[in-house]
Amino acid sequence: MVKQRRIRAHSCCAAVAPLCCRRGPSKTLTEPAIFARETSCDCRAPHEKLTIAQARRGTPVDRPVRVYADGIFDLFHSGHARALMQAKNLFPNTYLIVGVCSDELTHKYKGFTVMTEHERYEALRHCRYVDEVLRDAPWTLTPEFLEKHKIDFVAHDDIPYSSAGSEDVYKHIKEAGMFVPTQRTEGISTSDIITRIVRDYDVYARRNLQRGYTAKELNVSYINEKKYRLQNQVDRMKEKVRTVEEKSKHFVYRVEEKSHDLIQKWEEKSREFIGNFLELFGPDGTWKQVFQERSGRMLSYALSPRGSPSNSPPRELSPLRSPSPPSPPARWHNARPSPPTSPKGASASISSMSEGDEDEK
């Protein structure tokens, strides 16, 4: 029964509540946040003071818990978005109102901003956690302001914020039990981003000169403009040299790889050639065997020449002639007699020949 009553009460209040208190998730993701009215809140639902424990239990059921978070939000970054995400998720049903201070107040109490107030308003409108943006927010929150916008709680980091002659501008909010702390994101802030730009001013000035901005737009002197343009040319040359070096390294690597492959192939072919050579001309090689076989055949031919045919007819001897002496060796058969060295020697050789003929007779 209690659950049914809560559902009916919720449905009735939803029909009465204005659009600012009934912003659904589909609208959050498809449309920017609305701007708050300067007169008063449009919420018609009964507004009773809540405690943090009641809000965390999900009560009241007839309206969301209205949480207010304010700031400068210059150069809107992830630290801002995370703080708003925490504020949005403080309670089960939260309606987040974000107050953005104007340029006049910010320049007076904090310092100059990079973005204008209108740019900062638009940056907050397109954050997914924001339901409503309050322009020209006050620097110090008064009870009249909280009552006017029906604010239940104020979300901010717990570090005391000293400004406008006060040690902590949220001190009276904390004492009233309406303050809910959020955690800061370390390593990112607007001051950190500006410090990076100031520290590397020359780099960003050269960057924008390269992108087409004039020296007048950058408030750069003539001498500095020429210096930056010269540095840009030097950087381009360095980049070209670096590119050529990378290509050269790649080429040398490819040549080394190819030479390594060629050396490996040459070693393989050399081993193959040496193996074939040793197989052919080595101590037990094929060529030695062939040479030994041929030399053996030649030696056998020299030691045992061929004999005459066995079927040749025998030669008949003449009765008047005696058998002829054995023929001289073949090598002396066709040899010619050496000529006589002197006439005496010639006569002696003739007489010896005649004597020989007489003996044969």
From TrEMBL:
It catalyses: phosphocholine + CTP + H(+) = CDP-choline + diphosphate. It is an enzyme of class 2 (transferase). It holds the Pfam family CTP_transf_like. Its EC number is 2.7.7.15. InterPro entries: CCT, Cyt_trans-like, Pcy1-like, Rossmann-like_a/b/a_fold. Belongs to the cytidylyltransferase family. Residues 301-361 are annotated as: Disordered. Residues 68-196 form the Cytidyltransferase-like domain. Signal peptide: none annotated. Catalyzes the key rate-limiting step in the CDP-choline pathway for phosphatidylcholine biosynthesis. GO terms for molecular function: choline-phosphate cytidylyltransferase activity; phosphatidylcholine binding. Residues 304-321 have a biased composition (Low complexity). This is choline-phosphate cytidylyltransferase. Pathway: Lipid metabolism; Phospholipid metabolism; phosphatidylcholine biosynthesis; phosphatidylcholine from phosphocholine: step 1/2. Keywords: Lipid biosynthesis, Lipid metabolism, Nucleotidyltransferase, Phospholipid biosynthesis, Phospholipid metabolism, Transferase.
